[in-house]
Amino acid sequence: MDTASGLVRSPVNADVAVARPGEFAPLRIGDLVIDPPVVLAPMAGITNAPFRTLCRRFSADRCLYVSEMITARAFVEGHARTLKLASFGADESGRRSIQLYGTQPETLAAATKVLVEEWGVHHIDMNFGCPVRKVTAAGGGAAIPLRPRLLQRIVRTVVRSAGAVPVTIKFRKGIDESLTTFLDAGRIGEEEGARAVALHARTAAQLYSGQADWDAITELKQRVRTIPVLGNGDVFECWDALRMLRQTGCDGVVVGRGCLGRPWLFGELCAVLTGQPPPPPPNLGAITDTMREHARLLVEFFGEKDGMLQIRKFTGWYLKGFPGTKKLLPALHLVHTRAELDALLDQLPRDLPYPEVALRARRCKDGRTQQVSLPAGFLTARDEDLQVEDPEHMDGG
Question: Which of 53, 66, 54 is nearest to 97 (CA)?
Fold first, then answer.
């Protein structure tokens, strides 16, 4: 327990102090100024408009909140599901941020022009790090940096199509430890006009297992000198962000799994990165109130059927580590209506304090690794900008 703030701390971060005044500069991405320098990672099936709204509320809209990955081809062709996932909430009029995926520069350029000219986006992030098999097997995501010329052509084309709207790129260390690509990806992003680069400091083979290699973030920061470098991986507590910024010298942090079932993490991050003690953690009653509000927002956005399907996966993340809650999870994972959700949550005591074990508990992803699937011939003649046909859609949800 942090006696100054009442915040539960894990032993990992027991000695980390809040930021000193002026220790961290605001993150500048084109005309966007993000202060403190915190970005919500795009996560398929997670960072839709309702979840972004929750995160924004807890942090007074101070961070950058990126949409889940949108497939360029499906967007251009007008797939209803993709258009829905690409849409923004009423509270996002001033900072619309979207992540775009694709393998063909021409399709990505077309999608970019529509997003900029018709949808009024303020920031486009490009996905060169997704490790999912169906993505890498199609030559996309983490596979693209294996082809530096293709990566260069894609970034150049999208940057030109975006005009004054800033473009950033996000990537992993590489395919595996024997085949790293992050330094080339960072160099290409810098040379081709990206306004920032972000490194998830794991390989595609690692998926989400083991520890993120923050030394790789340090190395990338030492190589990329003219644009911001963002670090991603193992930011589970607000104190982790402080350690990452201090240890690596990076310009900002990207927060992924650590905020699943914990949207208030962004409020804690805003506090400690600006020299303030973080607010005390919510008790179980406050968390169940947040769950109800999350469900309401999802139902308003997707309709009751799809909205309640969405909230199911969040219920276990919200209740992680609280004693006596596991018995309700089977029923919570089958809820069909908000009334059913309310009735189940009414069975829980409101005064249980936040458990330390929940701070670093695994959320969403398991600890497995993989052999990365690539298109035939993708590792030969890597100086060619071979590309494969874009899939119709790979959007999450």
Answer: 66
Please report whether residue 175 resides in a domain: yes
Structural domain that includes position 122:
27-272
Asked if 248 and 352 sit in the same domain, the reply is no
Angle between helices 304-318 and 284-302 (to 10 degrees): 160
Q: Could you give the number of structural domains in the chain? A: 2
The contacts of residue 269 (CB under 8 Å, 6+ apart) are 36, 38, 59, 63, 238, 241, 253, 255
CA angle, residues 374, 380, 385, in degrees to nearest 5: 80
Phi, psi (5° rounding) for residue 106?
-65, -40
**CA distances for 120 relative to 97, 123, 162, 198, angstroms:** 10, 9, 11, 23
Domain CATH code at residue 329? 1.10.1200.80
Q: What does residue 110 show for φ and ψ, rounded to 5 degrees? A: -65, -45
Q: Which of 163-177, 282-296, 317-331, 365-379 has the lowest mean pLDDT?
A: 365-379
The CATH number of the domain holding residue 173 is: 3.20.20.70
175 Ramachandran zone, left/alpha/beta (phi>0; psi -120 to 50): alpha
Q: Reduce the DSSP state of residue 219 to 3 states and report it.
A: helix
Question: Confidence class of residue 8 from pLDDT cuts 50, 70 and 90?
Answer: confident
Q: Within this chain, do residues 185 and 265 fall inside the same structural domain, yes or no?
A: yes
Report how far residue 197's alpha carbon sits from residue 188's, in angstroms, rounded to the nearest whole number. Answer: 10
Same domain, 70 and 211: yes
Question: Within a domain: residue 386?
Answer: no
pLDDT at residue number 272: 97
Q: Residues 268, 314: one domain?
A: no
First-to-last alpha carbon distance for the chain, in angstroms, is: 36
Classify 268 as helix, strand or coil.
helix
Q: How confident is the model at residue 3 (pLDDT cuts 50, 70, 90)?
A: very low
Q: Quote helix, strand, coil % in the chain, to nearest 5.
A: 40, 10, 45
CA distance 71 to 333: 28
- Give the pLDDT confidence score for residue 385 in this predicted structure: 66
Question: Catalytic residue numbers?
Answer: 130
Within this chain, do residues 154 and 78 fall inside the same structural domain, yes or no? yes
